[in-house]
Write a structure and sequence with these properties.
mainly beta, SH3 type barrels, five-stranded antiparallel beta sheet
């Protein structure tokens, strides 16, 4: 008999049934970030970036505590999140998107700093992204939205 999968057990224990931590995106152009998991908690800031990747680090039945790419930690209602995945470059400079998942592969485009790209998939340390009809590969270390450990403490 095999050992039960710890992540699966933990996911079964979350209100949503999904693992924590996990990545989602913000569904709307404007999302209130609150100090706690209820509408009566104060608004800390307002996100103005539809598709922004966020990491769920805790949850209640209706609320998700999220970590954002700048290290902000806040609560948002579950209805403002989407299961689609996206990423954002980590550094201040554009990152190359390559035709194949290899460092020597042809560069097909650049992803600008702070641009949001759709995450198609990751494989062996490389992630395939798409943005504005262009697809390409970049090392997973170049983007925020794929690392497994909790990103905010």
């Amino acid at each position: 008999m095999g050992v039960p999968d710890v992540a699966a057990r933990e996911a079964d224990e979350t209100p949503s049934g999904f693992a924590v931590p996990r990545y989602l995106t913000l569904k709307f152009d404007t999302v209130n970030a609150r100090s706690g998991p209820a509408d009566d908690h104060r608004v800390l800031w307002v996100y103005r970036a539809r598709g922004l990747p966020v990491q769920v680090v805790a949850e209640t039945r209706e609320w998700r505590q999220i970590c954002d790419p700048e290290g902000g930690l806040a609560w948002v209602h579950r209805r403002v999140t989407d299961g689609r995945r996206s990423v954002i470059p980590l550094g201040p400079d554009p990152i190359p998107l390559r035709r194949r998942p290899r460092a020597e592969a042809e560069i097909t485009a650049y992803l600008n700093a702070r641009a949001i790209a759709t995450l198609d998939r990751c494989d062996k340390g490389w992630c395939r992204l798409s943005v504005a009809g262009v697809r390409g590969w970049t090392p997973e270390t170049e983007v925020w939205g794929v690392a497994a450990p909790v990103q905010c403490r």
